[in-house]
Amino acid sequence: MKNIRKILLFIAVAVCFVTVGFSVRGNEHMNYSNVLAEALSEDSINTFFDIGRGKPKIEWNQDYTYVKSGYLPSKYEINSSEYTLALDVKAHGEDLRFRIEVGRASGKSSLAQITVDSKNNSVNLYNGSANLGTYDFGGLFKAETWYQLKIVTKDTQLFFFVNGKLAAQMTDAKGFKGAFSFRSVGGEVYLRNLVCYETADIPVINQYNTVGILAGGDLVTLAGKKQNITFHPTTDHTYTDLRAEISDNSGVIYEEISINAIQGNYSFEYIPRGTAGNQKIALYDGNTVIGVADIYVEARTAVITEDASFNNFYNTLIRQVTTRNQPVYTLNGHTFKMHMSWLRDHIHMMEAGIYWQTGYKEVLDFWLDNQHPDGYFFEMIVDPLSAGGKSYTEGSDKEFYTDTDDPNYILLRFEIEADIEFLVVNAVHMEWQTTGDSEWMASRIPNLEKALSWIMNNPERWSKEYGLPIRGSSVDTYDFTYGHNTGNRRVVWWEKGMDWGTPMAVFHGDCTGFAQASCQLAEMYRATGNNERAEYWEKVSDNVMKNLFAATWNGNYFAHMLQVHPKLEDLPEDWQEDLAGDWTRLSYSNSCALNRDVLTQSQAASIINSFKTLRDNLPKQETVTGYADESLFAEWVTIYPSYRKKEYVKYDPGNYINGSIAPFCGGELARGCFQWGYADYGYDIITRLKSLLERDGGLKFFYQQNGEIYYYSGKSSGGPDAWGAATVHNAIIEGLAGFNSSSMLLNSITLSPSWTVTEYDNVYASVSYGENNKYLAYSANYDENGGKLSYEIVGDSQTITLKLLMPAGKIPQMVTINGKAVNFDKQAQEHSAYAVITYTKQSNADVDMVVVDFENGTLPDQKDPSQQGSELNPWITPDPDYPYNNHTSSSNKLLKYGLFALEIAAALVLALGTAVFLAKKSLKK
């Protein structure tokens, strides 16, 4: 009956949709992305930039215009030596590169030039032909983002501001002034809102900014990154009592340094710290101020090693996550920018994006405010008239998509999925941690509880038999229903006698994600003082994990899918043949489980060793007919072995979701390796991913089993490359660099750097969130000959747990903090040895020097690295002649035979009851 109702409902909805489509959506969907300012003539651009002599103030506030590569006409002179130009700039494409020149309006050379290059994350200053320095901005400028620029001249000084922050300063020694030029370099640069006014209108310049005291340093620098400053006197005066005084953004003086002359120059060294933001270096001769420099100390997530190729690898990952074309929507009263239109993928990118970007709360508010009344979340913004949009709506019931106030967009959810609810919980928890906005978090708890409760109380989402979430059987977390290769994403409840339906299964990735989200919801409840609900959700999480291990743990890792409705034996025979192999299929979400705080050490080690064993015994590549002679190029599989029945999974064995190699699996696996004591394996994965990125210019979404880029419908990868880049970035920041925050705004953090497994002896690393200026940074030094590890730590974190990895074959001997020996724990984790200590940081103005002396040896419970994986059950290599496996867990067998026994008992009782009834009836006659 339920099936008949669904079919009738579908037909009715289809008729209504077609009718409305002809009447409401008859107008062609206009693509505004091409409606630019191409219509502007060269003369109108000239007029735009013709500031003109004697015009101290002029404004141009159209939406925007744009210039392609080349100079704009140089005819904009200003009859003033003190003026400010302000305008908004945005680049189209991957790079933002432009040059601003202040000096003579005629002639081939300009005397003061500022070149911004987002590709190399730098700003270059020139005075005439002399390069005054290159300043690292580390991704400050990003394509497809508007920035307000201010170019301020005052006497012979030139100042360059970005979004109100001083970015660069220089002196135009020859004093040419009164002209402005603009050049875009490579690609298109968009401009708007030009304003020119006298500098006196804004008090931005300190009167002492007249000496080049930062000739050897950076005007914009990273918190915690040591600076070497040289002061070049402009006269022959000899200073006998020269000192520098450095104050932070809150006015606290955190450094006072006496400066001595070396070969006629005066140099000093300091570590930028304190409250990040605008800081000052004041130069004193005795008690007389002779100069003040404004600097900007930036709180930013960064990694800098001695190896330029590694630094470029890391920065490329950042660019992949942040510079893709991020759509901006105005829907149902909300304006917000997403990484892409799929909420699921957006959240996966958000996991790395929180370290630089802002605006995530606006995204979450939109989806939370548009939660379905039943409790589930929609997961994508769809243009229903596009080819992709039509395929989505055709594969979904109308119940699972809804209109917005923009006729060009609908909201849609794939019915088979069971992950979007727990992902939204993850995202709200992340936003709370990065912003510290507890009031907002508390206001969103009802949405989150409603979503998780919808899963638990919906028979099409929850198995009472197993006490676990269920989904339409698919390939790992992907959105294609097994058994239907037409793009179907529906759940059609399978009744007896049906020829087809949606096989429903327990999928381990949904379960570990649900358990993690339950714990996060409990943490949020506890922060609001509601301990009763916190305890409830903690119990839910515990029960899910106990049930999951009982149902799907195959001895080494989580089995892929456990068919629950119908049971495996009740499915069509050719489906059974394929799905029976799920007991030994290793899939991507096992790597995710490592990072969800739901495993014990032995469970995590078993999963890691399973991937590691696969790496060391790479099986043959899969083909439609069997197996090739060559082996897989990497172990970061979406699923292995793949499904053989292409007609039921849509993709050939070894292709796309059905067995390709995915960097997002490699990134999750590497991150887990660092957490669970396998740093050497984690770094091995990162090194191989680095080689892929260098070969292809960036990481791709999927790779074929032979290592070549996977092409889907003519496009590389077939998915968002930034997803993989985000997971690999976090494997570096949270794994290799070791920043693992356990509280809001980095207040409490575990710092566990693993650079001792790399070739780098000197590393700078820092962490911050895009939403605020809180940070933690360190400089690490590895002295192998001296037997020491040293860390200079600065930042805002208050409670720091140091978990410091020793070099191979070494154990910690002594730990000192700021020269004082402290008690510490020697901790073994698998074959790794650590020095562990928790301490309270007194002030962000302090530099904490932590030194670990080490010696040869192993800890008593430290495992032999050559034995890693020996405790595993034998790895099951697919037989090329019969690539299926019919293993059934003992718990499932017990359940199966137990139910069978109950069925027999029930039948006997029924038969006996019937016999008694008939006998009584016969006696009455």
Describe the structure.
- The chain is an alpha+beta fold and 925 residues long.
- The protein is 29% helix and 27% strand.
- It contains 18 helices and 48 strands.
- The strands form twelve sheets. Strands 1, 2, 4, 9, 10, 11 and 13 form a seven-stranded antiparallel beta sheet that branches. It has a seven-stranded mixed beta sheet with strand order 14-20-19-16-17-18-15, with no helix packed on it.
- Strand 38 (739-741) and strand 39 (748-751) form a beta hairpin.
- The longest helix has 35 residues, at 890-924.
- It starts with a helix and ends with a helix.
How would you summarize this macromolecular structure in one to three sentences?
This protein is of the alpha+beta class. Helices cover 29% and strands 27% of the residues.
SSE layout and pairing:
Elements (H helix, E strand, L loop, with lengths): L1 H22 L18 H8 L8 E3 L4 E3 L2 E2 L11 E10 L4 E6 L9 E6 L4 E6 L2 E7 L10 E8 L2 E6 L2 E7 L8 E5 L3 E11 L21 E3 L4 E5 L10 E6 L5 E10 L2 E6 L6 E9 L2 E11 L3 E3 L3 H15 L5 E4 L2 E4 L5 H11 L6 H10 L10 E3 L4 H8 L6 E3 L6 E3 L7 H16 L2 H19 L5 E2 L4 E2 L1 E2 L31 E4 H20 L3 H22 L8 E5 L7 H7 L6 E2 L1 H5 L7 H16 L3 E3 L4 E5 L7 E2 L5 H4 L13 H13 L3 H18 L14 E2 L2 E2 L4 H16 L2 E3 L6 E4 L10 E7 L6 E9 L4 E8 L3 E7 L4 E8 L2 E2 L3 E5 L2 E9 L7 E9 L33 H35 L1
Helix pairs in contact: 3-17, 4-7, 4-17, 7-8, 7-9, 8-9, 9-10, 15-16, 15-17, 16-17
